[in-house]
Each structure stands twice: as C-alpha cells, then as structure tokens.
Design a protein that fits this description.
The chain is mainly alpha-helical and 142 residues long. It is built from three helices and three strands; from the N terminus they run ααβββα. This is RING-type domain-containing protein.
C-alpha cells in the first residue's frame, strides 16, 4: 500500500476544503454581530422606556410648590412666640437653622406645627416665601 500523495487534501476531516471552513466562520461572525446589534437595540429601548416612565411618575408625584404671596404668608403663618430658656422645642438645638444664630431671651420665634422646629420669625418668613418645607427636616411646613 502506498500513502496518498502529499498535495491531496484529506477527505476524512469535518471540512473537505478550506472554502467550507471560511463559509462557516463567516456565518458565525455575521450571526454574532447580529445578536450583539439586537442586544444593543433592546437595551437602548428598555433604557428609554424606563427613563420615560420614571420622568412621568416623578412629574406627577412631585409638583413644585407654589410660592406664597404676602397675604397668604400672613394668614397661614404658624403662630409666633417669645423665646425663654425654658421653652420646649423639638430637638436639642437652640439656634436658628437658617441664620445659625443662637436664640436669645426675648427673640421672636415661629414654631412649625408639624415638626415643631423653631426659627426666628424674620428668617422663617423669608424662607417660607420661597418654599413650603421646613429648613431642618424638609417636612411640609404649612
């Protein structure tokens, strides 16, 4: 028995020629690129939809508070009191969180009804003219 000539291609392997191998590799590469493109498109679509849903939810839940005008500030402002050393306030802070000055005896204070935080009358009135939340805890003030 003689061995086959060296230039003859083997017919026993999975690919009888290099053209079959090239065609299969091209198909696999095209398939991988298409799967990656579809994955990217699906990711972008899901990201877009979730962002839109989140924006719609936050715009419905958190409508910006309308600033109070001077008439509403006077009629809706919490009552004021004079500070004395025995005044019972929320927390242990004895200073105005807006101007950071300590309360002195005889200072006019305004205590917010829900959270019981106290502030100088002028400080909190200026604060409440632009927002309706407590400067300390951000609770609804009025």
């Amino acid at each position: 028995m003689r061995p086959p000539p060296p230039s003859a291609s083997p017919t026993w392997g999975p690919y009888s020629s290099s053209k079959d191998f090239d065609a299969n590799m091209a198909f696999i590469i095209i398939l991988v690129v298409c799967v990656m493109a579809l994955t990217f498109i699906a990711h972008a679509a899901i990201h877009f939809l979730l962002r839109r849903c989140h924006q719609r939810r936050t715009s419905n839940e958190h409508k910006p508070p309308t600033p109070l005008n001077d008439d509403e500030l006077i009629t809706e402002a919490p009552p004021s009191l004079l500070f004395s050393p025995g005044t019972n306030l929320a927390g242990a802070e004895l200073e105005c969180a807006i101007c950071l000055a300590e309360f002195a005896e005889g200072d006019g204070l305004r205590v917010l009804p829900l959270c019981r935080h106290a502030f100088h009358v002028k400080c909190v009135d200026a604060w409440l003219s632009s927002t309706t939340s407590c400067p300390t805890c951000r609770a609804f003030a009025l």
